[in-house]
Amino acid sequence: MIVLDEQNTRDALPFPALIGTIEDMFARDCVMPLRHHHGVSVPGEANATMLLMPAWVPGEYMGVKILNLFPDNHTRSLPTIFGSYLLSSGKTGEMLAMVDGGELTARRTAATSAFAARYLARADAEEMLMVGTGRLALNLIEAHAVHRPLKRIRIWGRSQQKAEELSAQAASLGFQTEVVTNLASAVHSADIISCATLSSEPLIKGEWLKPGTHIDLVGAFTPAMRESDDEAIRRSRIFVDTREGATKEGGDIAIPLKSGVIDADDILAELKDFATGLHAGRQSADEITLFKSVGAALEDLAGAILAYQTVIGNQIA
């Protein structure tokens, strides 16, 4: 069995290949049992979350991710997410690889958003607003830039220092970056808005949105959390990674569904529909599109398979 640490995992998952691999997996018959999603109390701190996410392609590969999310780890200068992915043979059950779960999650999440944006963001999208400064942020910037000609990256975060640090990291990769403090103004000028926060209150307001915007909602991963308000939902054509996950786990969809702001028919497609050609995505330059991601186990499986095959291929070469 091979073991891939954080750097090994990053090197084995270049975004162009990963985006395509995830799209291919959504088109396949991948089995995804209901994930185990457990709240874990941490005395004196915010509750943590333990996720167990199994998936398999019959006769080929199978795997499970164990992921621990501790929101207050920033107070200890530790990552919010720790985890591992165990990849096994779908024919024999032999354990093939242990992949760093935090890096796999960050990269597959960003790649999934970029896959959705290929269908939902305008082809000429040049300005991206990154809302949030955590681990996902730089990955989202890199991934969205694979298929869209991003020329300006604007960054908003609750911490000015973290926003400046993210801006410097993105600039070192060749992006033109700017830290912004006026969120309303930044939202109004953006072509792509990507949110990766732990917010329980809406950050993106519908009244700020210009025609043609694509909204990518990655954070707010529980039914009580949300990054967009009701007006943003009303004005948008809505898409999700999976209907089952987004309607139950992501507050950006679950809350307006429960309150009657939208109904189930307002969710126009899930990613499988793009991958299999059942839905073409964006229909006009002026429409506002909104994509809600809560994560699907097949994304992890796709990334783990790609990482494993990349490393094995390099060893053979």
From TrEMBL:
InterPro entries recorded: NAD(P)-bd_dom_sf, ODC_Mu_crystall, ODC_N
Species of origin: Rhizobium oryzicola
Leader peptide range in chain numbering: none
Superkingdom of the organism of origin: Bacteria
Name assigned to this protein: Ornithine cyclodeaminase family protein
Statement: the UniProt record of this protein carries the keyword NAD: yes
Keywords assigned: NAD
UniProt keyword NAD present: yes
Family: Belongs to the ornithine cyclodeaminase/mu-crystallin family.
